[in-house]
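Thread: "does anyone have the structure for this chain?"

Original post by V.I.:
We have the sequence but no experimental structure in hand. Need at least a predicted one for the grant figures.
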Amino acid sequence: MGFELSQPVQLGGEFADEASRVLRASFDDRLPSLAGLHTPEEDSWFFRNRVFRDCSVWGVFERDLLVGIVAFRPAWIDQLYVLPTHQGRGVGASLLNVARTGAQLSLWTFQRNRGARRFYEKHGFVAVQETDGCRNEEREPGVLYRWVKDSE
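Reply from O.Q.:
Generated one for you, tokens below.
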């Protein structure tokens, strides 16, 4: 039996290390061929110096454990990750709802991340562009999704 999950709460930069661990655990689980792309120190640096600087960052906790994060700017989600052990429990949906502050919202995911694609499509996002991956660090084909208010 699991513990009760918190409602999403806004996070400060002191959660950069924990947020980066959520990203890495989720990313490596969904895309194992890209595991180890960055060191834990690089991930933490990225969150401290980029994500928390440029985005509003929110999280969901189970007791004292950060289990999911969303980082967003107006009309754009930069990061949305949920620990693999907590996926399918409403964490991602509650974080997605926090980011839906305007008339539309866009994000990128990888074409082969079927779980993420199903999740976004279930929540009203529509694929609007596909790429061959030549312009992203991972060299992975991507898909741009867009949600427009009242599109669900």
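V.I.: this helps a lot. Strands lie at 9-10, 56-62, 65-73, 76-82, 104-110, 126-130, 142-148.
O.Q.: and The radius of gyration is 15 Å.
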